[in-house]
Design goal:
The complex is a heterodimer of chains A (about 450) and B (about 60).
Chain A (H helix, E strand, L loop, with lengths): L1 H51 L5 H29 L16 H7 L16 H22 L6 H23 L5 H6 L7 H19 L20 H20 L26 H23 L2 H16 L7 H24 L8 H19 L16 H28 L7 H6 L1 H5 L18
Helix pairs in contact in A: 1-2, 1-4, 1-8, 2-3, 2-4, 2-5, 4-5, 4-7, 5-7, 5-13, 7-12, 7-13, 8-10, 9-10, 9-11, 10-11, 10-12, 11-12, 12-13
Chain B lengths: L24 H33 L1
Classes of the chains: A mainly alpha (about 450), B mainly alpha (about 60).
Chain lengths: ~450, ~60
C-alpha cells in the first residue's frame, strides 16, 4: 500500500512538472507571438507614412519610421522597462500595495544589469514581456511619426521618438496600466487596451510637436485656408492601415495576463493588467464590433477611403479602454461615434493652422480620450483591481486619467520640440523641403524609373 | 568574458547564464550607449552636411 502511494506521488509529481512545463511554454509563446504580430503595426505604419508622403519624400519618411523603432529598443532596455516598475505609485519610488513596484523592485527585476534582463534559466517571462512593451513603445513613436512627415529633421525626430517611447508613455503606463499605478489604486482608472497610456499620450505629444514644427510649405494659403496635400500612393496608405489593424490583435493580446504562472493573477482564467478577470473571447466580440462601427461611422461622414480605414483604427481605439467589458453593440456604437467625430476633430485642428499630415491627433489623441471617457460613461462600477473591497471604475476616475494622460503627452512634446526649434534642430531648410528630402539626403531613389516628382510647394 | 559558472555540464545550472553576468554588464551597456550616440552624431552631421551642400548647389 505504502509503495503504491509512493509511486502515485511520483506520478503526480511528474504530471505536475509536465503541466507546469507545458503551461510555461504556452505563456512564453503567447507573449512571444504578440511581437511579430505587433511588428505588423510597424510594417503598416511604414507603408502608411510612405504612401501619405509625396513621392519626393517617400524614402525619407520610411527612414524616419524605421529608425524610430530601432532607437527605442536599446533605450527601452536601458531605462524604459525600469521606469515602468519604479514609478507606479508616483515619483517617490515607493512600493505599492501589490509589492510589484518601487525602487528596490525595479532594480531587482528591470535594471539593465539585473539577472532577469538576459538569458536566465529561472525566468521565462521577462524577455517576452519586455519585448511586448518595446513594441508598445515603438507604436507611440510611429503614431507621432505620421503627423510630422515631410519637414522634420531626422535627428530632431529621433530625440523626440526616444523621449516619447522610452520615457514619457511608459511613465503613463506605470501610473495607469499597472496594478500599483496611483491612477488605478486612487481613482479606479481603467484602460485595458491602452487607449490612454499609448494612444492618447502619443496623440497629445504629437500635437505639442506639431505646434512648434509648423505646417508644410504650401499647406496653408495667406488667408489661412488649407490646401489638401495628397500623398503619392493612397493604395499603399490603405494597405498600411489594414496592416496596423492586423497588428492590433497582437497589441491587444499583449494586454492580457495569461493564467497559471507564478506571475499570473490566477490559475483558471485570463486577466487584465490590473488583475481583473476577462476573456480573449469576449475581447474578440468587442474588437470586431468596434472595428466595424469605426469604418461605418467614418464612411457615413466622409465617403473617403483614407478616413474609412482610419475609422477602423479609430473604432478599435475608441473601444480599447473597455474591450474587456463592453456589450458588443455598445462597442459598435462607441466606435461609430468616435470615428464619425474624428474627421471633424481633424478639421478643427487644421483650422487652428496645425498641419497634422495623417490626422494622428484626431485618431489617437482624441479617440484615446474618447475611449477613456466612454468607460466612465458606460462602464462605471466595476471593481478596478484584483482583490477584496477595491475601488471601482467611475467617470471621475476616467476623467482624471484623461487629464493626466493629455498633460503627460502634450507638455514633454511641446517643451522638447520647442528646445529643438530654438536650437535649429527641428525643421529642415525650406529649400530642401520644396525640392524633397529624398533628393537632398537619401542615397537611394523610391521610383527610379518614374517621372521626376513635382517640386511645387503644395504638390 | 566567459561563462558565469565553471562547469563541464549543464546539469544543475540555474539562473542567469548570459556571458559576463555579474561582471561586465556596465562596460557593454556603456559601449552600446556610445554606439547609439555615435550613430546619432554621425547622422546629424550627415544631415547637416546634406542641407549645406544642397544650399550651396542651389
Amino acid at each position: 500500500m505504502e509503495q503504491d502511494l509512493a509511486e502515485l506521488a511520483t506520478v503526480v509529481a511528474e504530471l505536475r512538472a509536465n503541466i507546469a512545463a507545458t503551461n510555461g511554454t504556452f505563456a512564453e509563446t503567447f507573449y512571444y507571438l504578440t511581437i511579430p504580430l505587433m511588428v505588423l503595426i510597424h510594417a503598416g505604419f511604414l507603408a502608411y507614412e510612405m504612401g501619405a508622403s509625396r513621392s519626393k519624400n517617400a524614402l525619407a519618411s520610411g527612414i524616419k519610421n524605421i529608425l524610430a523603432f530601432a532607437m527605442i529598443v536599446p533605450f527601452f532596455f536601458f531605462v524604459g522597462w525600469w521606469i515602468y516598475w519604479a514609478f507606479p505609485t508616483g515619483l517617490d519610488l515607493s512600493e505599492g500595495a501589490m509589492g510589484i513596484s518601487g525602487l528596490a523592485y525595479a532594480n531587482d527585476v528591470a535594471a539593465p544589469w539585473s539577472a532577469f534582463m538576459g538569458p536566465n534559466l529561472d525566468d521565462r517571462s521577462s524577455g517576452v514581456f519586455w519585448g511586448a512593451f518595446v513594441l508598445f513603445a515603438a507604436t507611440t513613436a510611429s503614431i507621432m511619426s505620421g503627423g510630422v512627415i515631410e519637414r522634420i529633421k531626422l535627428t530632431g525626430f529621433v530625440v523626440l521618438a526616444i523621449l516619447l517611447g522610452a520615457f514619457v508613455w511608459i511613465l503613463g503606463a506605470a501610473w495607469g496600466w499597472h496594478a500599483d499605478g496611483w491612477l488605478v489604486t486612487k481613482f479606479g482608472y481603467h484602460d485595458f487596451g491602452a487607449a490612454g497610456v499609448v494612444h492618447m499620450i502619443a496623440g497629445f505629444f504629437t500635437l505639442g510637436v506639431l505646434i512648434n514644427l509648423g505646417p508644410r510649405i504650401g499647406k496653408f494659403n495667406p488667408d489661412g485656408s488649407a490646401n489638401s496635400i495628397a500623398g503619392h500612393s493612397m493604395p499603399m496608405t490603405l494597405i498600411g492601415l489594414m496592416l496596423i489593424i492586423a497588428g492590433f490583435w497582437g497589441f491587444l493580446m499583449g494586454c492580457v495576463i495569461v493564467p497559471g504562472e507564478a506571475w499570473s493573477w490566477g490559475t483558471t482564467i485570463e486577466a487584465t493588467i490590473y488583475g481583473t478577470p476577462m476573456t480573449i473571447s469576449g475581447m474578440t466580440f468587442n474588437t470586431l464590433m468596434g472595428f466595424a462601427g469605426g469604418i461605418i461611422g467614418a464612411w457615413m461622414v466622409t465617403r473617403d477611403p483614407f478616413w474609412m480605414m482610419s475609422g477602423a483604427l479609430g473604432g478599435i481605439i475608441s473601444c480599447a479602454a473597455g474591450l474587456d467589458l463592453w456589450y458588443p453593440p455598445m462597442a459598435f456604437a462607441i466606435g461609430f461615434i468616435g470615428a464619425a467625430a474624428m474627421p471633424f476633430v481633424a478639421s478643427f485642428v487644421e483650422r487652428r493652422g496645425i498641419d497634422d499630415a495623417v490626422g494622428a491627433f484626431a485618431v489617437h489623441g482624441f479617440l484615446g480620450m474618447w475611449g477613456l471617457l466612454a468607460v466612465g460613461i458606460a462602464a462605471q462600477g466595476y471593481p478596478a483591481l484584483f482583490g477584496e473591497d477595491v475601488i471601482t471604475t467611475s467617470f471621475t476616475g476616467q476623467l482624471v486619467g484623461a487629464v493626466v494622460m493629455g498633460l503627460l503627452g502634450f507638455v514633454p512634446g511641446y517643451v522638447m520640440s520647442f528646445i529643438l526649434k530654438v536650437t535649429g534642430q527641428l525643421r529642415v531648410p525650406a529649400e530642401a523641403e520644396i525640392v524633397g528630402l529624398d533628393a537632398v539626403k537619401v542615397p537611394a531613389t523610391a521610383y527610379p524609373e518614374a517621372l521626376h516628382p513635382s517640386v511645387s510647394p503644395a504638390e | 568574458m566567459e561563462a558565469p559558472f565553471e562547469s563541464t555540464t549543464w546539469d544543475g545550472i540555474t539562473g542567469a547564464i548570459y556571458a559576463g553576468y555579474g561582471s561586465v554588464e556596465g562596460l557593454w551597456l556603456l559601449l552600446c550607449l556610445a554606439m547609439v550616440v555615435a550613430a546619432v552624431v554621425f547622422g546629424w552631421r550627415h544631415e547637416s552636411h546634406a542641407y549645406r551642400k544642397f544650399e550651396k548647389k542651389d
